[in-house]
């Protein structure tokens, strides 16, 4: 039992050493990763599954030799013990003895000859593999990051055909940009303003840049800046409207003051109203100055936004040019790969032609040897037949003729062999020179590709740093501008409250004045009536004077509070 296990381990080691050159010839990184994972799983196999492990190794070697990377090696290795491979998945050239991968050891060839007899396949293995695939995905995703570069981690998810693999969240997914809603207090009442839609000029960004997160952030910043501009403009309009209404009210109040000539305190009240109107006009002028300052700040905002738009357009154009250059380099690389394939095909055809020529020349040499041996046989027969009949000089003549023919045949044979060797050497020299030239071209193309990739990465990092700097500057400017706008809005609210209080005071004064005017008019009517009565007679005058005194006392009692307030 121990000897069999040792033999299986030795066979597995030989297989690993033999499979290395075929793995090095692979170009797809995903296939290399899968081979590595499968070899690690086979190395960590249990003692009971060593025989099945060698069968898996046999199948992997035959797949790599035939360049058919098929199941089960095209998928991730599952967790748990190995399951037997179905017969329909085995290749025709899966035995160890037929493949060129294996060494010429006797024990190893013995194992390869007996490998087909020791295997019994099961039809239920496909269901077991499907049940193990879901649990193996997480195990693979951890292992795979150990030998992948950070740039290739995002590419490998789409290229590998993994069971139950979901698409990750890309930058190119079209996510809706949220609309901001803000509230603004006006002078008359509180109104809700909805934000303005995106500027049509921003939609000129090409479709290839929709996936980047930086463009979305810039759109949000532009929306917030446009909303802040609209808020400020609406506040300016409301302030102007309120100022115009106040000017109209102040003009009407002045006209009323000038028309009331019958009031005793007319001059004093007119002076107070004029002073209030002047103070209000000074506050309005201050508001107009602040509004002009806000307009200037809005103009600065617009210019900064235009600059940012130009910067973004230039960045987008540069990005498009970079993508075009990348597409051109990819096309060139595909052409180079096609040329390499064509060179390999020509090399294989040339090798086949040389082998055919060598076989043809070997056939000719073999035919010459056959003719030589046939002639020797004929000469010997002739000599044996002529010994009894011919004597003396005739025998010597025959021997000399036979030796001359033999020399001629040897000379022809040496000439043909030398000619074949010379042709073979010339062909091999030409083939080696062509191979060296193709290798140098491939190395130059690889270096050029590396230089282009390095240049592209440097340019990409510089553009990314510029975009980040622009974004940071815009965030700083936005935070400062929001603070300034909020402070100005609070200042305007305070001014509005003070103006409301002043308006209430003025309205109260006008109401008191109207009441007084009504009272004075009623008194004048009473005086006129009493004058008429006085004209009637002197006896009635005394009575009327008493009545007037009584009325004046009652009037002072009733309206003493109002007079004090005035």
From TrEMBL:
Residues 150-176 are annotated as: Disordered. Pfam families: DUF4485. Keywords: Coiled coil. Residues 8-87 form the DUF4485 domain. It comes from the Eukaryota. Residues 284-339 form a coiled coil. This is DUF4485 domain-containing protein. It comes from Laodelphax striatellus.
């Amino acid at each position: 039992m121990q000897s069999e296990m040792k033999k299986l381990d030795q066979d597995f080691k030989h297989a690993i050493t033999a499979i290395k050159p075929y793995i090095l010839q692979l170009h797809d990184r995903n296939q290399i990763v899968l081979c590595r994972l499968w070899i690690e799983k086979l190395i960590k196999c249990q003692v009971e599954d060593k025989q099945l492990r060698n069968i898996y190794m046999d199948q992997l070697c035959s797949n790599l030799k035939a360049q058919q990377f098929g199941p089960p090696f095209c998928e991730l290795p599952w967790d748990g013990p190995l399951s037997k491979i179905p017969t329909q998945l085995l290749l025709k050239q899966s035995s160890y003895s037929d493949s060129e991968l294996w060494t010429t050891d006797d024990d190893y060839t013995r194992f390869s000859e007996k490998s087909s007899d020791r295997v019994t396949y099961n039809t239920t293995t496909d269901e077991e593999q499907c049940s193990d695939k879901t649990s193996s995905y997480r195990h693979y995703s951890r292992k795979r990051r150990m030998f992948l570069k950070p740039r290739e981690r995002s590419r490998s998810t789409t290229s590998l055909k993994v069971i139950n693999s979901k698409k990750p969240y890309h930058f190119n997914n079209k996510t809706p940009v949220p609309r901001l809603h803000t509230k603004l207090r006006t002078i008359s009442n509180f109104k809700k303003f909805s934000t303005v839609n995106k500027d049509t000029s921003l939609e000129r960004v090409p479709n290839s840049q929709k996936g980047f997160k930086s463009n979305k952030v810039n759109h949000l910043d532009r929306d917030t800046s446009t909303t802040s501009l609209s808020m400020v403009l609406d506040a300016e309009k409301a302030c102007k409207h309120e100022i115009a209404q106040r000017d109209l009210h102040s003009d009407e109040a002045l006209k009323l003051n000038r028309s009331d000539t019958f009031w005793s305190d007319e001059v004093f009240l007119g002076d107070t109203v004029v002073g209030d109107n002047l103070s209000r006009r000074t506050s309005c002028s201050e508001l107009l100055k602040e509004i002009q300052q806000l307009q200037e700040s809005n103009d600065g905002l617009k210019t900064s936004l235009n600059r940012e738009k130009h910067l973004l357009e230039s960045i987008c154009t540069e990005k498009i040019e970079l993508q075009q250059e990348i597409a051109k380099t990819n096309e060139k690389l595909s052409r180079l790969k096609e040329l390499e394939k064509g060179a390999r095909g020509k090399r294989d055809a040339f090798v086949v032609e040389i082998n055919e020529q060598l076989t043809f020349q070997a056939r000719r040499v073999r035919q010459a040897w056959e003719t030589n041996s046939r002639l020797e046989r004929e000469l010997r027969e002739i000599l044996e037949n002529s010994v009894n009949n011919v004597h003396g000089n005739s025998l010597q003549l025959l021997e000399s003729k036979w030796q001359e023919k033999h020399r001629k045949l040897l000379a022809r044979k040496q000439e043909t062999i030398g000619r074949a060797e010379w042709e073979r050497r010339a062909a091999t020299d030409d083939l080696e020179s062509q191979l060296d030239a193709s290798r140098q071209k491939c190395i130059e193309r690889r270096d050029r590709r590396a230089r282009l990739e390095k240049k592209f990465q440097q340019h990409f990092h510089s553009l990314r740093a510029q975009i980040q700097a622009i974004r940071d500057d815009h965030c700083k400017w936005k935070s400062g501008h929001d603070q300034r706008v909020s402070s100005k809005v609070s200042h305007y609210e305070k001014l509005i409250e003070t103006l409301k209080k002043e308006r209430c005071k003025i309205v109260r004064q006008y109401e008191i004045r109207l009441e007084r005017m009504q009272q004075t008019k009623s008194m004048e009517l009473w005086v006129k009536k009493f004058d008429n009565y006085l004209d009637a007679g002197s006896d009635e005058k005394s009575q009327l004077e008493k009545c007037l005194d009584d009325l004046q006392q009652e009037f002072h009692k009733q309206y003493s509070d109002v007079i004090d307030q005035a």
